[in-house]
Amino acid sequence: MTRNTHIAITLAALLTLCNLLFAQKEELRQTASRSPADKAKEVNPDTHLVLTFPGKPTLGNSGQIRIYDAADNRMVDVLDLSIPPGPTTSNKTTAPYAAIPYEYVSGRFTNANTNPGTPSGTALATPDNFQLTIIGGFTDAFHFYPVIIHDTVATIYPHNNILEYNKTYYVQIDPPVLTLSDGSFSGITGKTGWTFTTKKNPPPKNSQRLVVCADGTGDFSTVQGAVDFLPNNNPNRVTIFIKNGTYEEIVYFRNKTNITFLGEDRDKTIVCYANNEVFNPHPSNVATNEMPGTFPSRRAAFMGDNSKGIHLVNFTVKTTAKGQAEGLLLAGGQNIVSNVNIEGSGDALQVNGSVYLTDCKITGDGDIILGRGPAFFNRCELISHGGAYMWIRNTSANHGNVFLNCRFQTEGARETEIARAPTNKGKDYPYCEAVLLNCALAGISPAGWGPVGPDTSNIHYWEYNSTNISDGKPVDISRRHPASRQLNKDKDAEIIANYSNPAYVLGGWTPSMPP
Question: Global pTM?
């Protein structure tokens, strides 16, 4: 072997070693696995961006996450971590609102990249100093968390309806956005660090069944993506089948009809979000949300507004925040909730307009059921952490809340009230109605019912055959609220029969679902 050959072999070995060290360094630097995977194809445009690290990452309060169209290097979305997600009781931070991907024009937010969207109703959007995203296509906008971390997983939430079909995108993440204690992750840079290509086409417009799967193997990756795909006031029923998984997203839709949201498993299909009245407060220009057609509270995890024929079946919906925070808010009419777990805090469930609930479990901290009715509850289980079960606000125009063969159980050794209707900011509810038929109770105060306004002549605080959960014996009614009434099997037979009939309570509508 000549000297030159020996030197060449040595140099080649050194080059191989350098390449190996560089690859190892690059592998160490890009220590997070990604979803969608780098260079993935057939990605749903409603995808989240998920990074899974070997240790728990720390979310920074500066830096940006940017998404670019690879065809022309146009930035289509940016998440600026210097902007707080939304207001809290102590958060008074101010920061500029991001101009991309939305523009604020004539009192409305518009999507600068694709369709402009439409306003939700009477509410006006006001540019504030927090993160904003358009949900359900309506430009009043919601506050949201651009990045959510659970253990070692960081989920990035692009703004809604920004990514398009048949596009290739690349992602950049500034180093301050996410860090690891060992410094092994320093962001993603360049045009080739993280790329993916979306599906060429959406599902057929006449689809009768859409599949949502969090891992991207369905028609959509998010519940919101699926419901956004459907037209307003659709005359034909469509089933959105939601596969097992946790869908951490605010779901909001308006003017939708004939949609069945069907979960794969009641306990393993979960739609949730940390939303409440503080984080997404009621629109400042709407004095009340009690009248039909006004924009409802933005504070729930799952909201259907001005919608008819909505069926929620076999899944869990919940808010993970405290305060005035519904898991579910429905406004419209002829809606059905079946075999669903509903978890909230104050006002866990709000229903405005006719709704039939059967075999549901409803859990909350107080005023668990809020709304104007009418609502019929069949074989439902209600669990209170200590507060009253409902605050009823129906008028004389419709019935309130009726419970047939339901269970009311207060946790721990505390006692609370079945319902209350106190004077609220000078307003009374003289027609409030709560009727319990063949219900089992535990943790209810001897009075049973809470305060009402001065006029009790038309209040229906009615019970028939209430029993104790503990022993099945009749409840002691000797100290019941004077405004309440115990129905008699013989004298009130017609009342009992009427209120046992959902159609009587729900304004003539007989609830039914397709098989």
Answer: 0.89
